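Case study 2.
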Amino acid sequence: MALSAESSGRLARLLTEHADRLTVRWTEIVAASLRGRLSQAELARQIGELHRSMIDALGSGLTDLADEHGGELRAVLAELSRNRARQGFSATETAISVFALKDALLELMEETRDTQTLRDFLAFTSLLDQMGLFTFESFVRTRESLIADQAEQLLELSTPVVKLWEGVVAVPLVGTLDSARAQVVMERLLQTLVDTSSPYAIIDITGVPAVDTQVAQHILKTVVAARLMGADCIISGIRPQIAQTIVALGIEFGDIATKASLADALRHVLRLTGVETTSRRPRREG
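Prediction:
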């Protein structure tokens, strides 16, 4: 049953006349589903704002949520969904904040037993279903955006670029190096080279479990990009298993310096910068 402009007007008056009773019961039903995870005051504020927006929209002749009269109501629903997604609530818990009005309103309808009012209620449930679906979709979009932001932050945290000393930076890689992560590595390394004016960079792959053709290509692209910035790269962490794999795959690192360990790479860079790395032990006095 479709909602008509006349039904919208009658529902707006009904929601206004029984505002206190409806919002209190509506809040109680939602609070029970949230199990105390949201303060009563905040929940009452949200329900009150949603209630006022519904009255304004219905009073303007709203018959479909997509109508021009539903702009403010959609905005309130979207904001509610975004807040719940950020606070860690589920999509179901968020949608119940809308659907709970059905139960609160039905209790009132059962007392009136007016045929026209019941018909309006049946038509109104269709609009409430649209609101619930809109809330669910808004929640999912926000959650997907949060997940994407967190994934990007994790990528940045998993690819630190460390300044070892003046003129030398290092990128310790741990885990699988895919295309997305390789792009982050390249961007952060190049930006650090610009910020520090470092002529040397060490790319340590000790924590990379396996090196295949794709991983090797990512590393080579990073080295080439660094050279274009005027910096030389040393690749460390070439374990025996990785060395065998590289040879078997026919991967050529060319004139790129490679070392078995990070310590070897550090000694290599120190020699290039002219720093003495040999230390003598003091003689024991006889």
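Residues 279-286 have pLDDT under 50 and may be disordered.
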